[in-house]
Amino acid sequence: MVSYKEIGLVNTRAMFAKAVKGGYAIPAFNFNNMEQLQAIIQACAETKSPVILQVSKGARNYANQTLLRYMAEGAVQYAKELGWKRPQIVLHLDHGDSYELCKSCVQTGFSSVMIDGSALPYDENVALTKKVVRYAHRFGVTVEAELGVLAGVEDEVAAEESHYTKPEEVVDFVTKTGCDSLAISIGTSHGAYKFKPEQCTRDPKTGKLVPPPLAFDVLKQIEKKLPGFPIVLHGSSSVPQEYVDIINTHGGKLPDAVGIPEEQLRKAAKSAVCKINIDSDSRLAMTAAVRKVFVEKPGEFDPRKYLGPARDEMVKLYKHKIINVLGSDGKAK
Ligand SMILES: [Zn+2]
Fold this sequence. Notes:
Blueprint: H1 4-7, H2 13-22, E1 26-30, H3 34-47, E2 51-56, H4 57-63, H5 65-81, E3 89-96, H6 99-107, E4 112-115, H7 122-137, E5 142-147, H8 160-163, H9 167-177, E6 181-184, E7 201-202, E8 209-210, H10 216-225, E9 231-233, H11 241-249, H12 262-269, E10 273-278, H13 280-296, H14 303-326
Parallel strand pairs: 1-2, 1-10, 2-3, 3-4, 4-5, 5-6, 6-9, 9-10
Antiparallel strand pairs: 7-8
Helix pairs in contact: 3-5, 3-14, 4-5, 6-7, 9-10, 11-13, 13-14
The structure holds zinc ion.
Zinc ion (ZN) is lined by residues 95, 190, 234-235, 277.
């Protein structure tokens, strides 16, 4: 058993309370490799932003869970080396799908876990979440739960509304489970293709897709039912068009990729939404930078020469999100 406290990590409790009060959101960035982690820590150290390092089940399989946990430990030391005196870093399991997985993360130094029972019938989601909360809280580990299903690109347009989190369920769910934060569905979704072209309108000037707005009325109702309770948004990448364009003009193929406009996320960050998950945007930044080197310098074969620029691009992206979208800069001095 390794406690996250020994590694210098923190859980989300105080971080979220401050964020809800302060009207900003904590960045939750996924990582699978060293360059992503370096970029996240560098960006957060430079802006003094609290941060949630997210590891998905897929990342655990890809990078190895033992390695990831030592990388997170290394991240705390690296942050200090960069001059960040008291780094506020959470190591969080993204989309835990079983009690066993959550338990294993609690035992290996995670300070926060998500148990995602949102695809289960309501009562089963409650039971599973409650079980994880009971275990995690014994070790001071905070738990994120989910209610409502994130719309996927394959879903029928007409069915999407019914996937939104039902405001009338949230008080019962939070009370029964004791979870520390709640991921809700108000129209965000995972990946770089968040909406089908027929769900969007087209900007007549640029010909680019304009996605439908988030359901802020649902968010408002939830906030009213759970005043001050930390709300989480998944699938909140914006899919920056400049990256999509670089990828597409350098041998890639991402037609009609579309995300959540940043002004909508900025609005959400000022509300009870205190954790915003961003994964696809960093993948796009990395891919754009790597593709550019491959096309411009076809003779290059030193990975540092293309992963280095990719890392620099991610630092730029993370800092932009922290300062211009989430407003979390300067909140962990
Ligand atoms: Zn998610």
